[in-house]
Specification:
The structure holds two protein chains of two kinds. Chain A is built from no helices and eleven strands. By secondary structure, chain A is mainly beta. In chain A, strands 2, 4, 5, 6, 9, 10 and 11 form a seven-stranded mixed sheet that branches. Chain A has a four-stranded antiparallel sheet with strand order 1-3-8-7, with no helix packed on it. Chain B is globular, with a radius of gyration of 13 Å. In chain B, 0% of the residues lie in helices and 61% in strands.
């Protein structure tokens, strides 16, 4: 049973560019959440997708957008990259059955903006 | 507002016991998670408390007091491989949304 997978593993971009990160959830999971983790900090919630719709959003600007596909995989897009967007981007999947279900994290994508 | 507080760093000796505390203030609180994260890796699940009391799982135990907004993670028989960051996260709202603390970096030395 494959866990949560993310691609790419590492990415280097220049300020102003756009980036797309990808996530495939654990088998049987239909909800995908994205988190940003700056160095030395805990993960910060970006948004969550279920049934191909954004269900919740954290305190992130509109430059951060996402998408969920019918097979439950998801993309995170960041436009007009800033140096401060350099971070580890984590995808977590869970079943959408209400509260109390563990979120399984993928290995993350390390984004460096220069 | 929503706030999770935990100590920034702790050190302990191999074979000892360490307790990592976490206090939280979140709306729509539905439970408390602890995750372990080694440097450069993804967080891995350790424990989940939704009711008051102690949950034990091998060398790891976690405690929750909802009335006090307080939790702790207890690690026994420390091993060098336990050197990592430990993240306290509150389950918030009606969806599977986690609010994380900044993490506690634990260094285990011989």
């Amino acid at each position: 049973d494959a866990g949560v997978t993310q691609s790419p593993t590492h990415l280097i971009k220049t300020r102003g560019q756009q980036v797309t990160l990808r996530c495939s959830p654990k088998s049987g999971h239909d909800t995908v959440s994205w988190y940003q983790q700056a160095l030395g900090q805990g993960p910060q919630f970006i948004f969550q997708y279920y049934e191909e719709e954004e269900r919740q959003r954290g305190n992130f600007p509109d430059r951060f957008s996402g998408h969920q596909f019918p097979n439950y995989s998801s993309e995170l897009n960041v436009n007009a990259l800033l140096l401060g967007d350099s971070a580890l981007y984590l995808c977590a999947s869970s079943p959408y059955r209400g509260v109390g279900y563990e979120q399984y994290f993928g290995p993350g994508t390390r984004l460096t903006v220069t | 507002g929503q706030n999770i507080d935990q100590p920034t760093e702790m050190t302990a000796t191999e074979g000892a016991i360490v307790q990592i505390n976490c206090t939280y203030q979140t709306s729509g609180f539905n439970g408390l998670f602890w995750y372990q994260q080694h440097a450069g890796e993804a967080p891995t699940f350790l424990s989940y408390n939704v009711l008051d009391g102690l949950e034990e799982k091998g060398r790891f135990s976690s405690f929750l007091s909802r009335s006090k907004g307080y939790s702790y993670l207890l690690l026994k028989e420390l091993q060098m491989k336990d050197s990592a960051s430990y993240l306290c996260a509150a389950f918030s709202g009606g969806y599977n949304k986690l609010i994380f603390g900044a993490g506690t970096r634990l260094a285990v030395h011989p």
